[in-house]
Amino acid sequence: MLLMWSALDTAAQQLPSARLSSIFPAGGQQGVTLDVTIAGSDLDDANKLTFSHAGISAKPKQDANGKAISNQYTVTIAKNVPVGFHDVRVSGGKYGATNVRSFAVGDLPEITSNGGTAMDKAVEVTLGATVNG
Question: CA 41, CA 38: separation in Å to the nearest integer?
């Protein structure tokens, strides 16, 4: 019985682990700059997105006063980044670096859905475009 209580006590004392659940949009076109929003758990004070390709960079998005907006970043994708999936992780927070998620780089223009499902709010999609949403 004492051994069981000891194990429970140890588990309760472990620090949280930062986790990246999603990044939206989950990709972008070569040669563009876009705003992304991340979601996850235990991302307290996280301030850095790191990509597996050096041609993809990010900086925290800022409000009108120059203060970083929580969980929002401006991502720049160089024209020479290969089309495909690249890893992204969040770091710089209280609980360390997160797991990786995939970030897709394509060569087609991106369209973001406005979330409307009614016909009068539909987004026009042209052929040869990638839709996010």
Answer: 10
Going by the DSSP 8-state scheme, the letter that residue 22 receives in this structure is E
Q: How far is CA 33 from the centre of its chain?
A: 14
Closest listed residue to residue 32, CA positions, set 56, 51, 68: 56
Expressed as residue numbers, the domain containing 68 is: 17-112
Q: Which helix (H) or strand (E) segment is 10 a member of? A: helix 2-12
pLDDT (0 to 100) of residue 8: 58
Strands 110-112 and 130-132: parallel
Residue 10: which pLDDT band, with cuts at 50, 70 and 90? low
Residue 91 identity = S
Residue 26 lies in a domain: yes
Query: Which of 7-11, 58-62, 93-97 has the highest average model confidence (pLDDT)?
Result: 58-62
The CATH number of the domain holding residue 93 is 2.60.40.10
Question: Taking 90 as the threshold, does the pLDDT of residue 51 lie above it?
Answer: yes
Give how many domains the chain has, as a whole number. 1
Q: CA 58, CA 37: separation in Å to the nearest integer?
A: 12
